[in-house]
Design brief:
The chain contains 3 helices and no strands. With 118 residues, it is an all-alpha fold. The chain has one domain (4-101).
Length: 118
């Protein structure tokens, strides 16, 4: 017999995988991040209920959970990298817009003028 906490852990992990697998638009990203945080919090609450000793059935089930956990880590890393890329793109667009509006803002001016025709 497998503990209910382990089954609940698997269910939450599968929901987390489904959430991070799909493409999310920038408008939906905040809602997706809140959902991810909620799923991670619920997994944290389930973790103390999963402790040794385990039956042989639970050990086999635990190996499946470990494989799922590796997938979750990869998907979350990809999700955070996608967010970082979007942030850096937004910052570069902002910088390009400033340079377009005022192209001479970054010119080094030392305040001197050298007249070569004396």
């Amino acid at each position: 017999m497998i503990r209910p906490a382990m089954i609940a852990w698997r269910d939450v992990t599968e929901k987390l995988l489904a959430l991070t697998t799909g493409e999310t638009s920038e408008e939906q990203r905040d809602a997706v991040i809140l959902s991810i945080e909620g799923f991670l919090d619920s997994r944290d609450k389930l973790q103390p209920h999963i402790a040794a000793p385990f039956t042989s059935e639970e050990e086999a089930f635990g190996e499946e959970l470990v494989a799922l956990e590796a997938d979750v880590q990869k998907k979350l890393a990809l999700f955070t990298n996608q967010i970082r890329v979007n942030i850096s793109e937004a910052q570069s667009k902002k910088g390009n817009m400033k340079n377009y509006v005022n192209p001479y803002s970054n010119v080094a001016r030392d305040g001197t003028f050298y007249d070569t025709k004396q």
